[in-house]
Amino acid sequence: MDTVRNMEFINVLGMPTSVLKYGEILQDTKSMFLVVPGNPGVVEFYDDFMSHLYTSCGGTVPVWGVSHAGHVLPPAGNQDLYKKLSYEVCTLDGQIRHKVAFIKENIPKKTKLFLIGHSIGCYIILKILYQLEQPIGRCFMLFPTIERMAISPNGRIYTPALKYLRWMAPLLVSGVGLLPQGIKTWLLRSHFKDENVPECVHSATEGLINPFCVSNALFMAHQEMSKVAELDKTLVGNHLDRLSFYFGKSDDWCPPHYGEDFKKLFPTCDIRVCEMGYSHAYVIDASLHMADIVAKWCQDFM
User: Which one, 15, 139, 178, 268, has the greatest CB density within 10 A?
Assistant: First the structure.
């Protein structure tokens, strides 16, 4: 399967952007999956999920994922451009423009898109649907954060921290960055020692440990707390026939009553509730299981 995997940097709105591909778009490619990540938006976190989804669909439907702008450090030589553009593109609104530009510049208009959003990626998908020229097969919204983020259980904790303390994180990361690679790897593996964490999560986390990317991810998170407030019922209603939602049963970013409220508002919507207890950050504990769920789920729409 390694022969079909490709990780590369593509310029999107002038920003070198990390893109992970399983399979390529050929002349006869009719449909594909595109993963829009949560925050931090490092697409490598989703490597196992994407690989398993690709094989589960017979290796015939490309599965691509696009990182958020500014969340993955580009190759040497692009750093100055990256930092100059980050103030425009690394905002939450900038990330929305970034995904629209990526799709329009890299995916043929005739290719049917099956969008997979995770967490804030679901909010981004909702915001870009009306701008896309491609046919949309389905949007699978996994553990969605599309409303009331600041007053969710986690939001009540992180909103003040992101407002007043986020400047400390890049300083701490700078200190960690001075440590020998072996010690950094040991610290990371010690942090996850009681969990069966995929190798791609270790690798993605190591890549994230730099002040620039951490600063961008936290600034985006800070904006999420204020911008992702009341549910845009009109926007959801306009695209309801293309949306499928997967809510966690114990999700502190999107607590169960959010899903219950959503179901009352949209009783005909395709909604599932996780019965297995997977965490909001499913790439840590349930990548393969979630890939199986999406692979089976999508058959009804392919």
Answer: 15
